[in-house]
Amino acid sequence: MIRLETRFASSFVPSGEFEPFLAKAESARKTLHSLQGKGNEYLGWLDLPKRIQESEIERIIQAAQRLRASSEVVVVIGIGGSYLGSRAVLEATLPFFQKPSKGNPEVVFAGHHLESRYLSELMEYLEDKDFSVNVISKSGTTTEPAIAFRLFWELLRKKYGNAAASRVVATTDSSKGALKTFADSEGFETFTIPDDVGGRYSVLTPVGLFPLAVAGIQIRNFILGFQNILEVLHSESDPLRNPATHYSALRNYFLSSGRHVEVLANFNPSLRYISEWWKQLFGESEGKENKGIFPASMDFTTDLHSLGQYVQDGKRILFETVLSPVEIRSDLTLKPTPDNLDSLNFLAGNTLGHVNEQARLGTLLAHADGGVPCLELIFSDISPMSLGELMYFFEYSCAISGYSLGVNPFDQPGVEAYKKNMFALLNKNGFEKEGELLRKRILGN
Ligand code: PA5
Predict the structure, then answer these.
(1) What CDD domains is this protein classified in (predicted)?
(2) Buried b (16+ CB within 10 A) or exposed e, 51-67
(3) Which of 182, 190, 415 to mutate for ligand 1's pocket (most ligand atoms within 8 Å of CB)?
(4) Distance, CA 81 to ligand 1 centroid (Å)?
(5) pTM exceeds 0.90 for this model
(6) Does residue 445 have a pLDDT over 80?
(7) CB-based contacts of 159: which residues, under 8 Å, 6+ apart?
(8) What's the CA gap between 213 and 430, in Å, rounded?
(9) What is the pLDDT of residues 61-108, one digit of tens each?
(10) Separation between Cα atoms, residue 26 and residue 37, nearest integer Å
């Protein structure tokens, strides 16, 4: 279970000033459960761990099994909330190095940017391999995944002819959007994203669960993590005993005292995509109306040799939250050498895990001494179940924190601005006039 440790932050939180933030966070938690807060049409994620249907889990596992049996590679196409959750769990839990094979396919991602080199190299990589596609888009109209799917559908058709459709699983809206129309017309197997669950809260829907099952993750364990922590978070009304309420209150307190940037740090770079997922969750949920904490991430000790300088000595606008799993999966023991040429014999007999832990503690002490409050999120290990707990903890905290801040944590109006300009510059039907104006601005007349 998750524990919020504040030993390296408490000196930054004067008790008289903090109580109102705790009270506000608990009131925000109540608003969340009243289902009357802003964006309440997107609260499907709140009880989802309790409502998830066994028949849906079974169908996901069956469909995943079908693709696993016939594919060496499965391409998961999606952007934002439609890929970050599954990628985060896969990067954290799968072996770093493994060869693709039929029966245990490699999962690769596409449709999350527009770099042509990446897509053409991926298409080349797939040429001599059996592959399938899981295309994911709630709206069914997002440009990046739609372009990627167009390319991979053509490749599938070329390779498998009429059997291509059986190699596509589409995850989208139940009734609307271009992807739904595409899927119906070609007869793809489809999974539905509930209307009341937004993209960044959708990892517990087929959006996240299907790619995990395809990669061989025991999705029931992942779901169990969500279910376990839900019970704790929903029932604890003491804000100091509820880690999500406490975390949300601390974030908003730090923001009010001029700390505009939260760094989610880890000492296990396999958690890097957990941070990417978290950045989308908090960035899209809180960054609006000129408000919000800027969510940043760092992988330590790597980034201690680059951004560490700024954290230690730069502008004091930061606080840190450190992902701290207790157990590590495999450890190495350092042995002594007779000549001690690398001068490392002082470490002989220690495990690398122990060395990393001292690096973690040393960093927290140094950063706190340098004026950066450091929170630790302590959880048991990097397993699907613990990650399920962690992800629900963050979803729940984000909703409380957003309500405390006074924003709607479930919309993302700002995401549209770049899309509108891009469509105008690409002369999409209906955007011609805007395109003309933008081109003039770019040319400076
Ligand atoms: O959180 C969100 O809603 C967004 O980031 C979406 O996940 C992202 O834009 C992808 O949208 P879609 O699934 O409609 O293609």
Answers:
(1) SIS_PGI_1, SIS_PGI_2
(2) ebeeeebeebbebbebb
(3) 415
(4) 5
(5) yes
(6) no
(7) none
(8) 41
(9) 999 999 999 999 999 999 999 999 999 999 999 999 988 899 999 999
(10) 14
Q: What's the rounded Cα separation, in Å, for the pair 169 and 140?
A: 13
Q: Which of 26, 106, 189, 284 is catalytic?
A: 284
Helix, strand, or coil here: 419?
Answer: helix
Q: Decide whether any atom of ligand 1 lies within 6 Å of the 80 Cβ.
A: yes
Ligand 1 atom at minimum distance from 201 CA:
1
419 among known catalytic residues: yes
- pLDDT tens, position by position, 282-312: 999 999 999 999 999 999 999 999 999 999 9
Q: How far is the CA of 313 from the centre of ligand 1 (A)?
A: 37
* 199 CB-contact burial (10 Å; exposed 0-12 / middle 13-18 / buried 19+): buried
d(CA 292, CA 10): 22
- pLDDT on residue 328: 84
As to burial, measured by CB atoms within 10 angstroms (0-12 exposed, 13-18 middle, 19+ buried), residue 345 is: middle
| Interatomic CA distance for residues 263 and 246, integer angstroms | 17
76 C-alpha to center of ligand 1: Å? Answer: 14
**Residue 172 backbone zone (phi > 0: left; psi -120 to 50: alpha; other: beta):** beta
Q: Which of 50, 102, 419, 440 is catalytic?
A: 419
| Residue 173 near ligand 1, beta carbon < 6 Å | no
